[in-house]
Amino acid sequence: MSSLLTPSAASRLCSACGICCNGVMFYKVRLQSGDVPRELRALGLKIKHKHTEQFSLQPCPAFQGAQCGIYAQRPERCELFTCRQLKRVGLGESSEAEALETIRQVVQRAAEVNRLLDESGKTDPAKPLGKRYEKITATPVDPADPPAVALREQLTLAMQELEEMIDRDFRP
Questions:
Q1: 27-47: pLDDT as tens digits
Q2: Which residue, among 25, 28, 67, 29, has the nearest Cα to 170 in the 3D structure?
Q3: CA angle 76-79-85, nearest 5°?
Q4: Is the pTM above the cut of 0.85?
């Protein structure tokens, strides 16, 4: 069976989403054997090296205005990645409109988590969402401060819901 996902439909879906590039779904992109770190650095990616692994941190600095600024030269891992929404539309299991609604919901949930993170304390918005959440939740909440306890509960629930949505609807 041929794919029902046209390049323009994929472009519309990806432009509406971006969670694979903006630090919501992933916190790093491992470089592959065909990637040339020097060239990716020249394109603006921050390449890190830890042990034998090289990777680029998310959010991707090349992701601007809901588009990849280095699409033709992006890392191999990015080129190979296809989220579950794109696969479902390509297989005819979901329509583009249904995928766009799912994307709208996950983007809305991520915005809510970001809002709650901002209310919970200082974190660096240039860091991946999950890392920001870990930093905030590493600090205990004073049980004698009911508003802080309620905010932490809201944040934890929103993050759990976001992770469930991503696992169910986006991660392969």
A1: 999 999 999 999 999 999 999
A2: 25
A3: 140
A4: yes
Best CA proximity match to 111, nearest among 63, 148, 158: 158
Short-list 84, 83, 85, 81, CA closest to 98: 85
pLDDT of residue 82: 94
Q: Using CA atoms, how far apart are residues 110 and 164, in angstroms rounded to an integer?
A: 12
Decide if 55 contacts 31 (C-beta within 8 A): yes
Task: For residues 32 and 34, give the distance between their C-alpha atoms in angstroms, rounded to a whole number.
Answer: 5
d(CA 160, CA 135): 16
CA angle, residues 138, 139, 144, in degrees to nearest 5: 140
Residue segments in the chain with a per-residue pLDDT below the cut of 70: 1-2
Residues 58, 24: Cα–Cα separation, whole Å: 8
Tell me which DSSP letter residue 48 carries. Answer: E
Q: Which of 109, 125, 117, 112 is nearest to 164 (CA)?
A: 109
